[in-house]
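Slide 14.
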Amino acid sequence: MFVLEEFSGPDPILVGRLHTDKVENDTARYSLSGEGAGTIFAINEKTGDIHAMKRLDREEKAEYTLTAKVTNAITGQLLEPMTEFIIKVQDINDNAPKFTEGPYHAAVEEMSAVGTSVITVTATDADDPVYGNSAKLVYSILEGQPYFSVDPNSATIRIALHGMDREMREDYQVVIQAKDMGGHMGGLSGTTTVSITLQDINDNPPKFSKSLYEFVIPEDLPLGKEGGKVKANDRDIGENAKSTYSIIEGDDQGVFEIITNATTQEGILQLRKPLDYESKRNYTLKVEATNIRSEPRSNGPFKDTATVKIVVEDSDEPPVFSKPMYLLEVDENAPINKIIGTVTARDPDATGSPIRYFIDRHTDLERQFNINVDNGRITLAKPLDRETDMWHNITVTATEVRNHSQISRAVVAIRVMDINDNAPEFATEYEAFLCENGKPGQVIQTVSAVDKDDPIQGHYFDYRLVPEMLNNPNFTIKNNQDNSISVLAKHDTFRRQKQEMYFLPIIVTDNGNPPMSSTNTLTIRVCGCSKDGIVQSCNVEAYVLPIGLSMGALIAILACIILLLVIVVLFVTLRRHKNEPLIIKDDEDVRENIIRYDDEGGGEEDTEAFDIATLQNPDGINGYLPRKDIKPDLQFMPRAGQHSGPNGVDVDEFINVRLHEADNDPTAPPYDSIQIYGYEGRGSIAGSLSSLETASSDSDQNYDYLREWGPRFRRLGELYSVGESDRET
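Slide 15: predicted structure.
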């Protein structure tokens, strides 16, 4: 093993020498292998001297393991076995102490005792802690005295001064030194800075900024509103500076309260009860501020007190009612203008303004009540009905005469008291059913009554039959002793064929004063029932139907009947339409049909355009005229009658010939048309109505005979008679 101190020089340094006794004519050759061979360490192959060629640093590598070999330079054979050896680097003090975790921050409570540990710092030295004193450290304080001290071995910083007050100084900077070589001369050193903050404790009491506060508060200040502020300052911070405020003297009636503003730490003075200038004008309060937190070492929480003087300022106050709410009663039959009750209010101010009273009509839309504006007397304006409204809630306002803006309100609840003004009546419209096979004494219906009134002693109803029905042979009633009765049948011979329905009038009387009564009629229907008394049918028609016929069969029969009726109606309608003529003439408007064509004739001399005599006289049947290819436009116009043609041609034959011509005419249009002719046939006692061939003028005609032809020609005769009378006038 070779030992070598850390080397820092520029020249190689001899580490050691290898030698062998088996040397033959200087043929031995030395060589190294292993850690650092050839780079850090070199060997003279002839002499075996080992040199360190570079700087050695123990902190980087403390030892090196190498292998030495000696061989014959000629043959290359080993002269001796290979030898392994170690080169150990011996430490020197070449590293200064270091605070690897610095700078440091620490906190300690103010007023801590001397010797209280604050923080422990740690320095490290890279030198060998085993060899020599190169890594032995000693700590000292360079800055921060006389407030703090440091333990030279453990590096623990402690309080060195008594009564360190945060309110005087809060932050400190302490410089700590670490020196190796045990602190002796020549040793290396390192420093670090420690920032130390004193933590607050509750060591200061709250203190009011002044001992006397004075406030002027108006008497109409609303409850919960701020009337003044007080504040106690505290030199502490955070939770230690928070205080609560309280009134400890001068407020026996509990008029005031003081709350703490959490943000500003002020005491806010508020009202818990209204102020009254006329009853008390001054208050002197003692207010106390107390810290929320207290230190165990102190005797209880810190406190401070101050005096608060309050002067009440007079304000114009609204009227004050004698009661916040009034309860009045009135009978429902009370007469108009009856006094129901009185409300009173006063002006609390010293001036004592007169008061005027009004009803808020939004609460009395139907104006059922009135109030005297001077004395507050409430009277009835309209009749009341308890059964419609049992309670009436109105609002009364009181206003100062001198200042109309000062208004107060009070609720007046008016209860309408009941009187017996409603007669009892059946609870519902009963309809009883009586079985034909019922037994005598059987209960047909249980009847009860209701009364809109609400007597204090409760309802009691008396039931009885009307006098003329007391001895009726069919029904009787029985009192059930629970304000109801049972209607009983007297015999079992009821039959629907004999009488289907019975009416039983019953008088119901209440127990009011005076008693009220009403007559109610119970309808009793006689029905067919099963053996178990279940109602099956209640009319005579149902009785005569075959018993074996079901409801489905009845519906089928009814549907067949309806279908037959529909078929008959359709058949009659079709027959009627078939027998109707093609042209329906109005009985009141009998006119001839004139065919008008759209071609213009050549005047009286034009005899080729159209031969109208062909239509007027069947004598022209043999004449053939070509047909115009123009659709005829029918127009109905009244005209005078004409005589029948002189020749005896049959109209039916005439029409058939014209029809044959129209069917065989190649120039005829392709559409069907109805041919209407002005010829009326011969043999009629009335003759022709056409005026085309008459030889006489209109003035020579007498149309009175038209009225004798019956209702169909009555209107025509009236038209001609009117025209004739017009000409005479």
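Speaker note: The CA atoms of residues 42 and 185 lie 38 Å apart.
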